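Protein record
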Amino acid sequence: MKQILQDIVPTKQECEEFTKVADAVIKKIKIKDADAILGGSGAKDTWLATSHDIDIFVQFARKYEDKSISDILEKVLKKAFTKIERLHGSRDYFQLFYKGYTIELVPIIKITKAENACNITDVSPLHATWVNKQSMKVKNEIRLAKQFCKANKLYGAESYIAGFSGYIIEILIVYYGSFEKLLRASLQWKPQLVVDVEKHYKNRKMALFHLNKSKTQSPLIIIDPVDKGRNAAAALGAVKLREFTKLAKKYLQTKDLSYFTEKKVTKEMIIQKKGKQHLTLMTITPQDGKRDVIGMKLRKTFEYIEKSLAPFALLKAGWEWNPGEDALLYYYTKKDMQSSSIVRKGPPLKMKVQVTNFKKKNKDTYIKNKTIFANITVKHPSLKAFIKSVLKEKYVTERTRKVIVELY
């Protein structure tokens, strides 16, 4: 682990450069009764080496709570910097590129208790205060867990990823004590396990009773240490959680340090793994827009095509996308031809209205076991023609700019 920590813990020089850039931006933001402060993993000292992302929170006094603090901040930023981008969220925030760093500037209302928040982002500085109670040893364990998740594409709370956010990784490490203990514990996780590090509730039953049902749909429920009414893991999806536990088991068996190395998936790698299977490889140029919106459009396109390919005996599928680049979507199928006709089952004969409607939609029908069926001619039995047809559908065209297909 020492070798991994040497690679992921920022050096003294990196820390000085990070601080210098953050301070330079903060000094340019001058608003009456508002203070710009370092936020996110930078404020918690849990950021990873080579990271060039800085979060800055602009804390407005309580008297601003009925005003549009995003508009106020925007005017100041436009004067201080040559180019900024306004991004839409629960409260609009801003992004700029400065001296090689991506800076996100988030307007918030200054609070001392989570229950006084006007917006979820107002609570963020309280998260930093809580994490900063931990030792440097714990923070380095957090770094190990973050790198493990990043390397295996499990990191990120954005809707198109539905993975582990930095904050829930921080909470889990504090709860279990170390990276390895977290991995071992994950092998025993049951659906809707409740992690309550600050013991806000007596037991799991009480936690689920008091939390809003809409906040308990995630496979793992993590009570926010500074906000007992919030499930910090609400954005975590079941797929990423399953992948995490699978990888945890593999790592614990091998202790292979390559699990901490990010591997960029290339066309060549995807083609190499084809074997005797049929491969449909798509290079998609996404539409313009906010990263999360673009990512979600790509994810929905991937899932739509994945579902459509069922008749060709889909074996495995995946997609890769780095913001600012084209996306790769790939599908391995057992067949490249499907049957030229299929049988569609209709309603039982006793459902007369539904049977009549079924006959209107389907010409070649017949009765079997008191149920109506229809013979349907498949328009595109070959994989090539089928893919061509799917890509012309509105669901795909309205979510992509350009698609190049390669069949292997």
Notes: The longest helix spans residues 291-308. The longest strand covers residues 101-109. The chain has a mean pLDDT of 96. DSSP finds 15 helices and 15 strands in the chain.
